[in-house]
Specification:
By secondary structure, the protein is α+β, with helices and mostly antiparallel strands. It contains 2 helices and 3 strands; from the N terminus they run H-H-E-E-E.
């Protein structure tokens, strides 16, 4: 007895359907990794700007709250792009009134990271608050 093998005439359609089912997952993985890279870059750029601001602040002999010299230094280190626009207004530092050995200066940068690609999947913003503290050396 000869067996009849049934051949599917729509074999190419099957691979197209499988590709259509897997493509959104692959795109989500790719876009998610790209977005994480942008977030990582933004976080470390802001962290470095805060570190440089606190390095300036610890040597100033007349450091005040929200010293414009520190704010200008930090703002100058943040790139002038849309990713960093919300961080420029959130730069603060504490001042030193009495010179004690235990005095510390903290420069805090706050802002909001706006997701570029993942906002279509429901991710809108992420609040970032980066404090950097060093011992005061300006006495």
């Amino acid at each position: 007895m000869e067996s009849k093998r049934f051949k599917f005439p729509f074999k190419h359609g099957q691979s197209l359907l499988e590709f259509a089912l897997v493509l959104p997952l692959i795109l989500l993985l790719f876009v998610g990794s790209f977005e994480f890279g942008l977030l990582f870059l933004t976080y470390h750029t802001v962290q470095n700007a805060g570190r440089e601001g606190v390095r300036l602040a610890v040597v100033l002999s007349d450091l005040e709250d929200n010293d414009p010299r520190v704010i200008d230094r930090v703002s100058g280190l943040l790139p002038d792009t849309g990713l960093y626009s919300t961080f420029e207004g959130g730069i603060t530092n504490n001042g030193i009134s009495d010179c004690e050995v235990s005095d510390q200066v903290t420069v805090t940068i706050t802002g909001t990271y706006n997701f570029v690609f993942l906002n279509t999947f429901g991710f809108d913003t992420l609040s970032i608050d980066i404090p950097t503290t060093m011992r005061y050396e300006g006495c």
